[in-house]
Design a protein that fits this description.
Elements (H helix, E strand, L loop, with lengths): L4 E5 L4 E3 L6 H8 L17 E4 L2 E3 L2 E3 L11 H10 L5 E3 L9 E4 L4 H7 L15 E7 L11 H13 L4 E3 L1 H4 L2 H7 L3 E9 L4 E9 L6 E7 L3 E8 L5 E8 L9 H10 L3 H24 L6 E8 L1 H8 L19 E4 L12 E4 L9 H10 L8 E6 L3 E6 L4 E6 L20 E7 L6 E5 L11 H4 L7 E2 L1 H13 L20 E4 L2 E7 L5 E3 L1 H25 L6 E5 H6 L2 H6 L11 E3 L3 H11 L1 H13 L1 E2 L7 H9 L10 H4 L1
Parallel strand pairs: 1-7, 9-11, 12-15, 15-17, 18-27, 20-29, 21-23, 27-28
Antiparallel strand pairs: 1-2, 3-6, 3-7, 4-5, 8-10, 10-11, 12-13, 13-14, 16-17, 18-19, 19-20, 21-22, 24-25, 25-26
Helix pairs in contact: 10-16, 10-17, 13-18, 16-17
The structure holds FE2/S2 (inorganic) cluster (FES).
Length: 647
């Protein structure tokens, strides 16, 4: 037929088009996002696609057959000047001549970074909220006294199909100069909010501007992590992190809230501190990549509710007690200059919605990244910090809660505990007979009983135990009978092993007899029992709401989760029984969710709709929380079985 079938990958969208339609037009009509800055003039090179080889619609398609038009003069000129990689075509020039499978290449780096789970081959499609549009504007005409900005707007609407288009106020001052500098050819950055169907010119450059950036930032209570991302290729061009300077006002969230309550200028000081640190991080990523601050046009932030409020300049006092009222729960859309972030004057800001008074935009970002709402299986997503934020559900229904785990999992409140850093014990094994330990520290590949271990750790020494190390040592102590089901260290073993040491009425386990001496005390075991009981009780409440006895998959988000061994987490009963192969650590999933929202405005809508539907459970108000908590103090649990663990 003269209406060949065209299939776009990876989206799978397809349609029939008259022969001679450009691939870019076909993509547009199907809603497949293909970047284009020059508007089809074969000059920006952003619209590259590949013809996929293989069988499709009864044809054998190879890159050389005639289902796509041969390279024309403009495309050849681009290929010569700018180097078009082998196999790539400019979709604005190449036309459809027969049935085709078109691959829209997604930058390899984004896929590595945004999609860690290569197993499910999920590919992030881009569709950023800020887009560059090149236009050639008619010169002024005395007989048609239409203003320069008005002609620019009219031309943008004509070439780029915007129904409603406005311009930011700050554009007015420069529009005439820029139009003349560019000899009536300019590139506009357009911010498009689909929901409001409002497009605005937010920045303007003379001539062809072919690069624009955005930042994705996760504001944690202890660390802030930032990525600088190309809005045109999706590539992460630089990343940086810093500790949250608000730590000097209070180690944990509640102490920062009380600081605000006690000090009249506390809120202002903390807002300033976090914004300054973010500004420093912007310096770092721009210097490292050579990108100008003014080329940053969009910024996405995620944070827990208290960090979220302090960053936005909102007093977090209401979050300090019931009913934990958020000033704003929906997504926040603003101008970056309102927060004085020092980006392009027109740069936009987007903050993901908060789920509840202590389940924040960071948990929303983790949800967006892991996507329980996109699948049928019952998925548990846990982000462990000082509070554990927990989301459980599937495409039909999602429930969420937070649980007060305290800082024990981060190594605080533990006698030899420390943050994960070189020198910290992270892996532990205990011989079931002799009760002798061996361990590994961060920064060395060797176990403590292997030759060369001393030399390997000479630089740092063995300094303490980090969160994952504590989980392992306590689980190993349990498995080797040093502690009982109720978490008591068995003093009678002191007769058998010099590792068991009496201290008053309780006993400790000597893990490393060095400088410092590293022991696991009865109090340490208690602290972990309390933390894990809180986490489990919260999870159990959500499972009851969902009416399920087990979960199909578990995702551990956050730094703690990325080092923890799922087997040990289950031995201790931090998480419910689950097929071990379905338990995985997903690293900084909150940062990933932020990048997704930066690169694709549809993800913004998706998470806004999802968060509205999530049912929030307030653990403090649930009568059964206490009961679940008490059962969960036992290892792994007093009442709930772990059949998968037995296997
Ligand atoms: Fe710019 Fe094709 S759209 S080169």
């Amino acid at each position: 037929t003269d209406h060949p079938l065209v299939l776009f990958m990876p989206s799978g969208k397809r349609g029939r088009f008259p022969k001679g339609t450009t691939v870019l037009d076909a993509a547009r009509q199907l809603g497949v996002y293909v970047e284009s800055v020059c508007g089809g003039r074969a000059t920006c090179g952003r619209c590259q696609i590949e013809v996929q080889e293989g069988h499709f619609a009864k044809h054998k398609i190879t890159s050389s057959n005639a289902h796509i038009s041969p390279v024309g003069p403009k495309e050849a000129q681009y290929a010569e000047k700018r180097e078009l990689p082998a196999g790539r075509r400019l979709s604005c020039s190449a036309t459809i001549e027969g049935d085709l499978v078109i691959d829209v290449p997604q930058d390899a780096v984004i896929n590595a970074q945004v999609v860690r789970k290569d197993a499910d081959n999920r590919v992030i499609e881009r569709h950023p909220a800020v887009h560059l549009c090149y236009v050639e504007v008619p010169e002024p005409d005395m007989h048609k006294p239409l203003g320069d900005l008005d002609r620019l707007k009219a031309q943008l609407q004509k070439d780029w199909g915007y129904r409603r288009l406005e311009a930011d106020f700050h554009i007015l001052g420069d529009v005439q100069k820029i139009l003349r500098e560019g000899k009536w050819a300019v590139t506009a950055a357009i911010h498009h909010d689909e929901e409001e169907d409002a497009a605005r010119i937010i920045a303007l450059w003379p001539g062809l501007k072919n690069e624009a950036y955005g930042i994705a930032c996760d504001i944690g209570s202890t660390t802030i992590a930032m990525h600088l991302v190309s809005l045109l290729s999706g590539r992460v061009v630089a990343s940086a992190g810093a500790s949250n300077p608000q730590i000097r006002f209070g180690e944990d969230l509640m102490s920062r809230v009380s600081y605000v309550m006690m000090n009249p200028d506390g809120r202002i000081a903390m807002t300033r501190a976090v914004r300054q640190e973010i500004s420093k991080l912007i310096d770092k990523v721009t210097v490292e990549s050579g990108v100008a601050r003014t080329d940053i046009l969009d910024a996405v932030f995620v944070a827990n509710p208290i960090m979220h409020h302090l960053f936005l300049g909102i007093d977090p006092t209401e979050l300090g007690g019931a009913p934990f009222a958020l000033a704003v729960s929906g997504a926040v859309k603003a101008h970056a200059h309102d927060l004085r972030l020092g980006l392009n004057p027109g740069a936009r800001l987007y903050v993901l919605p908060c789920i509840a008074g202590h389940v924040g935009a960071d948990a929303a970002a983790v949800t967006l990244s892991e996507g329980p709402h996109r699948q049928d299986q019952m998925m548990l997503v846990v982000d462990v910090g000082t509070n554990a934020e927990i989301v459980l559900g599937n495409r039909k229904r999602l429930v969420a809660a937070s649980s007060p785990t305290g800082p024990a999992f981060e190594g605080a409140e533990i006698s030899s505990g420390q943050r994960a850093a070189p020198g910290a014990i992270e892996r532990v094994r205990i011989d079931r007979q002799t009760l002798e330990p061996r361990f590994r520290v961060i920064g060395s590949e060797l176990w403590s009983d292997e030759p060369g271990f001393k030399e390997a750790v000479a630089a740092t020494g063995v300094t303490g135990i980090c969160g994952s190390g504590i989980i392992e040592v306590i689980a190993e102590m349990y498995l080797s009978g040093i502690i009982s089901e109720d978490g008591v260290i068995d003093g009678s073993l002191a007769a058998r092993s010099s590792r068991i040491i009496g201290q008053g009425r309780t006993f400790s386990y000597l893990l490393h007899d060095g400088e410092p001496r590293i022991t696991v005390t009865q109090n340490d075991v208690r602290a972990i029992q309390l933390a894990k009981a809180a986490l489990y009780a919260g999870t159990k409440l959500l499972m009851e709401k969902q009416g399920v006895e087990t979960v199909d998959a578990i995702r551990f988000a956050g730094a703690f989760g990325s080092f923890i061994d799922p087997t040990y987490a289950m031995v201790l009963g931090l998480i419910p029984d689950c097929e071990l192969e379905n338990v995985s650590a997903v690293g900084n999933a909150a940062g990933t969710g932020a990048r997704m929202a930066l690169l694709n405005r549809r993800y913004r809508r998706e998470i806004e709709e999802t968060v509205r539907k999530i049912e929030k459970i307030e653990t403090a108000l649930e009568p059964k929380f206490q009961e679940h908590f008490v059962h969960a103090m036992a290892l792994p649990n007093k009442v709930d079985p772990y059949p998968k663990l037995a296997e």
